[in-house]
Amino acid sequence: MDMDAAVSTLTALSIFASTVEHAAFRSVHGYRVIGRKDGKWVRWERWMERQFVLSLSAPPCLEVPVPAASPRILLAGWRGRPVFREGQTVGTWRCIVAFDSVAAVAPSSPPPPVLSPSVNPQLECLPNLYRDLQKVFQFQKVEKVPKRDAKEQPVHSGEQEKTSDEADSSEYDSDGDPQSDKELVPPVQKKPRANRKHIDSITLDEITQYFHIPIREASKTLQIGVSILKRKCRKYGIPRWPHRKIKSLDSLIHDLEYVLDDEQEDAQQELQKIEEQKQAAAKTALTKRKKMLESEKEIIQQKPALDLMTETKQFREDVFKRRYRAKSAVMEE
What we know:
Blueprint: E1 7-18, E2 24-37, E3 40-53, E4 62-64, E5 89-90, E6 93-100, H1 127-137, H2 164-168, H3 196-201, H4 204-208, H5 215-222, H6 226-235, H7 243-260, H8 264-273, H9 276-302, H10 310-332
Antiparallel strand pairs: 1-2, 1-6, 2-3, 3-4, 5-6
Helix pairs in contact: 7-9
């Protein structure tokens, strides 16, 4: 079978971390290949599995052969098109990065530090993995990959080097793939990420100003993602966004203001039912309660991790019961 020049395009990349061996990683690469076979232009998919030793410390990053006896992520005799997602486990391997332009799977976050060339420059020593990571994440600053030996043939853009793993993965090539006549699906368009300097410049005081609105609205106003805002909150010791607690306190304060500022006629009816001293004491207690709630609201805004006071929770239950009784009385009328 004649084989002319072929061009490979990355369509899928999944990175797996070992749950047993430290610094052991595997990658699964999917390529859409266009080439000539027997004088005809054909398309097919090629899947490859590689294994690496990745570390941020002194030992260099290395590509090692996938053990023949070890269970593979791409099982022998695999047919069809595999799709992996972040968090998925295959044996002792857990997926930490998943990209698939055909299945519309995009990475949910920037790559871990060990897979980021700005943090781990040793990735330059692994051109196959380095090049595919660059295609997926579009790193803003990428250093040049070390030059190859002059004796080696240059690698064309998008064309993958043949390694011993490619021979093992030949069984995943499918000349008669029913998808072979379909047009290539363009990569998924990813939303631009917030600038690192902008993220670092956001202070606790700025975040505090938006505790009164839901976290999604706050993230849009701050021009950062929700996940980034959550990480910033955890950095400042805020385990949970306090919007609901502050909203509940505002509701209780509003109810007390309504009671204190009630119409004069209703106040006269209440004055007729109880003694004058009890009325003054009740009003004083309500005013005191309002001040306590306002003080607690200020504390929550400064320390969002704190829970509501037990006394406040009990008062909130009493308010809910009073509202329910009032609605029931209206329904009965």
